[in-house]
Amino acid sequence: MKHTLRQIFRSGKFxxxxxxxxxxxxxxxxxxxxxxxxxxxxxxxxxxxxPGVYVNVYDSLGSTSYTLMxxxxxxxxxxxxLSEGDRTAxxxxxxxxxxxxxxxxxxxxxxxxxxxxxxxxxxxxxxGMTNAKRNYFIRLNNSLKGLLSxxxxxxxxxxxxxxxxxxSDFVGQSEYVNVSQxxxxxxxxxxxxxxxxxxxxxxxxxxxxxxQIGFVAGTIATLIGLALGLLAGYxxxxxxxxxxxxxxxxxxxxxxxxxxxxxxxxxxxxxGPFAIAVVIGLTAWFWTARAVRAxxxxxxxxxxxxxxxxxxxxxxxxIIADILPYIASYVVMALILxxxxxxxxxxxxxxxxxxxxxxxxxxxxxxxxxxxIYQAQILGKWWAYFPVIVVIALIAFSLNLMNTGLDQxxxxxxxx
Amino acid sequence: xxxxxxxxxxxxxATMVLTACGGAVTPAAxxxxxxxxxxxxxxxxxxxxxxxxxxxxxxxxxxxxxxxQWGPVVGWNPYSNSNNNALAIAQQDSARVIMFETPYLYNxxxxxxxPLLADGDYAWDEGMTEVTFKIKAAAKWSDxxxxxxxxxxxxxxxxxxxxxxLAAANKDYVDTIEAKDAQTVVVKAVLGxxxxxxxxxxxxxxxxxxxxxxxxxxxxxxxxxxxxxxxxADPAEDVVYSGPYGKFFADDSKVVYVRNDEYWGQDASMxxxxxxxxxxxxxxxxxxxxxxxxxxQGEVDVSQQFNxxxxxxxxxxxxxxxxxxxxxxxGIGASLPTAFYNLKSYGLDxxxxxxAIAMAVDYPTIIANAMTNQSATFDQVPRxxxxxxxxxxxxxxxxxxxxxxxxxxxxxxxxxxLEEAGVTDTDGxxxxxxxxxxxxxxxxxxxxxxxxxxxxEIVAAAGKKIGxxxxxxxxxxxxxxxxxxxxxxxxxxGYDILMMxxxxxxxTQPWGRIRKLMSxxxxxxxxxxxxxxxxxxxxxxxxxxxxxxxxxxxxxxKAAYTELVKIYLTDVPSFTLMYRPQAFHAVNESVWxxxxxxxxxxxxxxxPLDMTDGWSIAGLYNLTxxxx
Lengths: 416, 628
Fold this sequence. Notes:
The complex is a heterodimer.
Chain A: H1 2-10, H2 12-34, E1 52-55, H3 57-62, E2 66-67, H4 73-81, H5 84-96, H6 109-119, H7 131-144, E3 153-158, E4 165-171, E5 175-176, E6 185-188, H8 199-235, H9 237-252, H10 255-266, H11 273-282, H12 286-299, H13 303-310, H14 315-351, H15 364-373, H16 376-379, H17 386-410
Antiparallel strand pairs in A: 1-6, 2-5, 3-4
Chain B: H1 2-22, E1 62-66, E2 104-107, E3 112-115, E4 118-124, E5 130-135, H2 149-161, H3 165-170, E6 174-179, E7 184-189, H4 200-209, H5 215-224, H6 228-233, E8 245-250, E9 254-259, E10 279-283, H7 288-296, E11 302-303, H8 311-315, E12 321-323, E13 333-335, E14 338-341, H9 351-360, H10 363-370, H11 390-393, H12 411-420, E15 433-434, E16 437-438, E17 440-444, H13 450-465, E18 469-473, H14 477-484, E19 497-500, H15 511-518, H16 539-547, H17 554-571, E20 574-576, E21 580-581, E22 586-588, E23 592-593, H18 619-622, E24 624-625
Parallel strand pairs in B: 1-10, 1-11, 17-18, 17-19
Antiparallel strand pairs in B: 2-3, 4-5, 5-7, 6-7, 8-9, 9-10, 11-22, 12-22, 13-21, 14-19, 14-20, 15-16, 23-24
Helix pairs in contact in B: 9-12, 10-13
């Protein structure tokens, strides 16, 4: 056993796959201990907030302010509101409004804005301008208001009695706060999803549930496959025929179709993660059964098995003591593949809307499903679906790598 | 063998992933389905040979739509409800009039009915028993014959004779329709006990809701149909119509309508010209996501589907896409998607429980997340029974119901209400009990209706905040609709809080919507497609609902509406979750421009109903090319 383990861990592929998998496992276990927010808590009012550090504006007003004399601050501010495209658009508008083209210099911000402020009229009808463009100019005009101002802004509080605004604070243009001193800051490393949930926290919880589904499904499939394979292979005869008949039936029906039909017929109220795992397990055992049977057939006429038979051991004893150890390595490898397949099957089902009951627990597939329903892929909200794909790929990759590594150790034909 | 199996299994896994990735996504939005009482009749999808290839329509002459037609067109029969011909046939408050026409056109923006086939306004007689209107002399059928009063009368007579859906919906209010002479139509109303029209509102609505169908063609149809079922199932390829567009091409990938250049509406008595696009085309998209992509790429000009976060298209991608209003809520809210309480569920007969749940719901989050801000908030438009349009808002006394309205997210208030009503957590398990029994409910809406599902999730979250255990469940629409519309029995387990729609804008509104939200006349109906699915019953409300249609005094009307709002907000038989536009209306100005938008200067204003419904068809005459 020790020797085998040493051999396994000498396989580079296995170790690589194993470390990725353990890494994922560790994150899944440790992350919730540090970040204790509920994974399904709706924090964002709005959909798909981009990844980043969210600083409470109200709190930052009350925080200690520092004055930094940064020369490029004003330039940055202007650039963020007035891009090159905006400047060209302003020029176009002004030309159409009758300003000679030679008088317009898009590089001279001050002059350009001056011309804009003096000439722009949202109600002016420019021939050939679409409504979308008209809306764009209205938005641009609003965002440009006070852009070149060097004054700060006043913060005012409404007097509860008179309703009048009373200045309570003044924010200058070169005032800064230190993020670590602001009372309320929330880091959303992967932004929020369509429900306004923290994607990273949800992703970790979803990975855990998906792994659980994979383990349950894989274990069920492997146990059923192993039991039937052993029985069919060792007992043979009529038992073999019956088992193989059923197995062959399952082999010819496309599993995924079967999975879809079963999940659909269970009905959504009964589709918990565990139920889905069981369904996946029940539809994935047949190739394990076939493979195990084939191996058992080649084992059952070996000398040590015949000796055991002569000694009067029971069938159960022979199977467990004399046959199982010889195929144990294979079974472990099959289990790994089944787990990987189980996770992928859950993702596939959930994307079709047939996964576990929505939003009681997150799963990787459900996250993909909702991201697609809210068209994250069309709107370019990559954080809602891409990390999920990466996690699914990493899990499948690491498990398959472990399997290949094991194969190289146990299969003499593949040994270097 | 092992190796082969591993390879095989990997391939299986790979195929699973591939099939899964390419698999169908359930349509994201909930296009309010047409109220159909019959099963769709399967007939052959029609296809015609055309001189212009329907797959290569000239882009500068074609206006492309999405979000209306799902699945192939079944037929062209205006008597039937099962044509699945969304762009051509929809008899509703704002009737779809590109192919078949109604006497009047309803304009949801000003609430008026404008003559189309009719000449001038309609008039009630002194005794309020019948309505008279004239048909325009210029009005012609596509075969060149004039539209006459006889056609209007025969349409109704045929509907009654064969008991079509049209007759079923109107025969309690419309008695007969007669042709006084070739141009004059008299609609006789069903009279109430007082000798006046039982419901003049619905008779008025009839005039802008239902098509006029040619008598001669109807007789051809009758001649070849053995019975009512055959008549309704006829695909009507040869149908004669009066509208500006007719069938050009239809298969399972698209449907195309072509302009009838002889259209009577170019007469000075109507539009004075032809509508701008030569072709109207609707590609049949797989789902909303496919439709959104096409809109973004300029393959669709007018989009009637829920495009989530539509502002991204112009803010981030700089596309020439716009909506009716430039900023959120982007459209005009018209209908009130509503969560109904099953009043027979344990504890939901207690008004404190109902109100507490409704108060605790986080509506701002529903609007921001589920609707991606495409709805007015309840701070902007406080809850009542009215939609956000100015006309309806003016119909009730805002100050009188102020204390009853709630804006949501009021967990403390909800808890106080429950405590006061004695609904407390007596056994310390964190959930409240009423008389010792734990309050646990299932909130539900159809599966795949994503914005509704997201809203229902937020309702469930509100329950948890106030100690009432609400979980969610989403049955398939096919199951959901049968269960919810069977109002002749109690709702089964799993339907404690259920989401359905309410009426949008129309000539009978807000009365029609209020009736469908509160009237007990629908309780006991075996196939209830109207409303009040929670089976609420209140004689005081019923009395007001029955009285309103014949009220003429404005202050009396306002008092009645205010009283109804009071009853609704006190009893909380259901609660509105969001406001929703009558139709989504987003346009891409890559090819066409001058679409209706807020402040476009049209008079009367063209409503944002995709230029197909009611008065919005006027928009088709204003379109111009971006690059002529």
